Every structure is written in C-alpha cells, then in structure tokens.
C-alpha cells in the first residue's frame, strides 16, 4: 500500500525541522566553546602561575625568586579570600604595558595586576599609597579585578575586609576601610603626601566618599593600599577599594 502523500510530507517536514534543530544546537555549542576558550585558557594560566609561587617546605611565604625567574618585573602578590583575586603584582616604568600584557609576557585583553609606576620602593621615608590596577571587563570573574565589584554589596564588604598583599621581603595584611566609585581623573593615585596634614586630609576625603562607614582611624605614619578597576554605569568611571596596613 502506498504512503499517504500528506503523511509522507509530514515526515519529510519533521526530518527537516529535526535537522535544523540539530544544526542550531551544534552551532550554539561551537559558539559557546569558542567564546569560553579565552576564559578557560586564562584560568589555567592563573593556576600555573599560582603553582610557581608556592613556597618551599622551609618557607611559608610567596616564592618570589621563582616568580622573578618568569618575570623580573614581579614586586608582590595579592590575594583576597572569598574572591578569585590571587595574582602576582608587577611594576614597570609606565602604566600602559601591563594593561594588555599578561604576567607571562603575552599580549592579552586580561593584562596583569600592576603597581603604579610612580611608586618608589627606595623612597625614604616609604611612600604611603600603593596603587594597584586590574581589569574587570564587565565584571567577568576571569578578569583580574572583576571580583572587586562584589564590594558594592555591603554584606560582602563586612565579611571580606582583609587583603593579603605581600611585597618582596615585606608580607602584609591590609584592612579595607573605603569603597567608592569615582571618575578616572579623581586624585586617588598619588603615592606621596606633602605631610601629615595632607595625608589625613586625603583619608578624610575618601572616607566621605565611601559607600560604607567603618571605625578605622588612620594615623600619620600608616600605609594604605588602593585597588582600582573600571565601572560600567558611568563614563570613564572607576571602582576604588582602599585599605590600611595592619600587620
């Protein structure tokens, strides 16, 4: 008995629809994989660098000798519990190189975490403000400082106020006391101050800008750490997280 033409046409239509669906699914998966590859590569590169920095059995700090063997520009390591921020810090004679160059020296949109070139480790007395920069790329977790945007939530801020920022020969813990958004040209990047009054006046200004209140009181000889990344709800905006050294 011959097939009903309508039945045959329906089967043909179903096969075509199924084939189109399969093609769409395959194309979507291929697109997802293609889009995800940079993030996957970034993750494994980060893990590889972290393994280099692991201390030896007789040492409990970051292995800066091993890191400097990979990149002589290494000056520190920053880690914040509860975030993906766990990176080496580099410094060179400008603030452009590491915007789009990784710690390993590869060209990349991720760049590296870098210390402002104006900070002078040899300055006496020591410079009081270390400014670190990192990308956030629309708050992607693969970005070096993407997780700083978590600090826009007060409950997260209250639960994660400690930063580990170790410099070569100078391990340290830092307490966050200010989180605010500002324009890129705001004066938050200065490493040095004219004197005690200038330093404490600066502290008061950033305290006034902060989204949250704390009981931190800065002393004239305190050191501060400033973390800077982009925000995307204002033109050329920055999210700034500031901490003081507590140990």
From TrEMBL:
Question: What domain of life is recorded for the organism?
Answer: Bacteria
Q: Which InterPro entries match?
A: Sortase, Sortase_dom-sf, SrtB
| Residue ranges crossing the lipid bilayer per the database entry | 16-37
Q: Which GO terms describe its molecular function?
A: hydrolase activity
Q: Which UniProt keywords apply?
A: Hydrolase, Membrane, Transmembrane, Transmembrane helix
Active site residues according to the UniProt entry:
135 (proton donor/acceptor), 230 (acyl-thioester intermediate)
Question: Which Gene3D superfamilies does the protein's record reference?
Answer: Sortase
> What Pfam family is a match for this entry?
Sortase
User: What NCBIfam families does this protein map onto?
Assistant: sortase_srtB
Q: What is this protein called?
A: SrtB family sortase
> What gene name is listed for this protein?
srtB
């Amino acid at each position: 008995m011959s097939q009903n033409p309508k039945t045959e046409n329906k089967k043909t239509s179903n096969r075509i629809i199924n084939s189109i669906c399969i093609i769409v699914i395959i194309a979507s998966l291929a697109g997802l994989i293609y889009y995800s590859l940079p993030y996957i590569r970034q993750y494994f590169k980060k893990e590889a660098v972290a393994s280099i920095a692991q201390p030896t059995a007789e040492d409990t700090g970051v292995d800066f000798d091993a890191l400097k063997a990979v990149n002589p520009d290494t000056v520190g390591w920053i880690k914040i519990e509860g975030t993906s921020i766990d990176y080496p810090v580099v410094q060179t004679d400008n603030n452009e190189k590491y915007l789009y160059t990784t710690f390993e020296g590869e060209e990349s949109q991720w760049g590296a975490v870098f210390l402002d070139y104006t900070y002078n480790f040899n300055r006496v007395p020591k410079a009081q403000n270390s400014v670190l920069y990192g990308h956030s790329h629309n708050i992607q977790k693969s970005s070096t400082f993407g997780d700083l945007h978590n600090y826009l939530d007060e409950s997260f801020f209250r639960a994660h106020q400690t930063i580990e920022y170790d410099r070569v020969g100078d391990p340290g813990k830092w307490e966050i006391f200010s989180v605010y958004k500002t324009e890129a040209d705001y004066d938050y990047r200065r490493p040095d101050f004219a004197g005690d009054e200038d330093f404490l006046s600066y502290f008061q200004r950033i305290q006034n800008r902060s989204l949250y209140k704390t009981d931190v009181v800065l002393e004239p000889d305190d050191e501060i750490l400033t973390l800077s990344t982009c925000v995307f709800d204002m033109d050329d905006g920055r999210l700034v997280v500031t901490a003081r050294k507590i140990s």
